[in-house]
Amino acid sequence: VLNPAQNELNEEFAKKIYELRKHKGVDEAKANALAKDKIYFATMLIHEGIADALVSGATMSTADTIRPALQIIKTKPNVSVVSGAFFMALEEEILLFADCAVTPNPNSDELASITLSSAQTASAFGLNPKIAMLSYSTADSGSGADVEFVKEAAKKAHELDANLKIAAPIQFDAAVDLSVASKKMPNSDVAGQANVFIFPNLNCGNICYKAVQRSANALAVGPILQGLKKPVNDLSRGCLVEDVVNT
Fold it and tell me: How confident is the model at residue 144, as a pLDDT?
């Protein structure tokens, strides 16, 4: 156990924070203060490889957790936005939902980036990602700006990684039910068997994960922050001890 306010790493961390942030106006006094701040200290432990992962959020906002990570750890190449995914553990399968935690209204480039990050998260945990980019329309059954937005984001996601298996746009029932998929999107190798679900905005994503968690008695693990170079995870301030353990 290390006390962030007083330990043998503070001086070294202060110097490194100063070098990393002086171009943003951080002076040595501010760097010294940040090196003793619990979340900046924890972020530096990750940055320096002294610790492997960070779990935060029980006593601070998402913004407070993510800010030092963006400033110090930074995002992976080809990632334009940090997002939050949940593993939804149902009785017979595990699904991944994103973004349910971070970006309120992503543009098409950001939604494509979230799709790529979600596929990488799924793969890292042993899932073969079959991605449903959700909409109120399946294939060409409906039209409108929201549908075109998902189509455009799917196109950009394929440009980031041509090997991604994506069904877009698609409704939730067609994404999970083979009988519905056979009618609505019969030639898809994803429809009816998706395990990664990309929501068009945070409003949809957050509502849906909580609805499934509470009404289907699913275990929701997360949010897992995606897109950063190293693992930083932010829990809700309403989290339980088991949420911390699971994450």
Answer: 87
